[in-house]
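Box 3.1 A note on notation
Throughout this textbook, protein chains are presented in two layers. The first layer is the amino acid sequence; the second is a token string describing backbone geometry. Keep the layers aligned when reading.
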Amino acid sequence: MPNLTCDQEPRSPGGGGPLRLVVPVLVLVLLLGVLAGGVLTVQRRVARAGVDSFTVAPAGQQPIEVEVRRRVVDLEGRLLADGRPWSSTVARGSVLVVNYWASWCAPCRAEQPDLNRAARSYAARGVTFLGVNVNDDRASAQAYLRELDIPYPSLFDPKAETVPRLGVVGLPTTFILDRDGVVGYQRTGKTTVRSLSARLDALLAQGGRWNP
């Protein structure tokens, strides 16, 4: 019987390839198992949050701007920061920008710096900003507010109960209501200072009310 030296490769009893090839295969199988488990975990979290009820605008997708049916819209709920009741009737007399967002929505995060700048810039011109946080948990949403230093309040709407009033189908979505609470503009997808300013300037130039 020949001696097995350190330079020789152990072989399987059936005369197969080196046993060293088995180790990478086992590692690959284990990694695939871990990955599959992680994907299932994310899917379960998404299902629990109800995220699949909205279309999230993909990065780079061209936003969609539309002139919506003119109608008075009333929004009410409780503020994310402290749970106090809030109603859009307190904003009557001011132009109101309403932005629907969620902490898990990447395009929402991408647009937030522009919304912050616009809110600060137009505050002195009688424009009020409001966020509406949907399909989210309070702790994650509050952490989002603190991290991105959002200068205006948000309603906490975990069950998306306000969505039918404005017809939100995707995130992020931004609406503009005039001084009488009439909605006249909707943008689904990332908002920029430039796009928002163009609409606000035009509306303010005509007294803050949509033309008939």
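Residues 56-205 form a domain with the Glutaredoxin fold (CATH 3.40.30.10). DSSP finds five helices and eleven strands in the chain.
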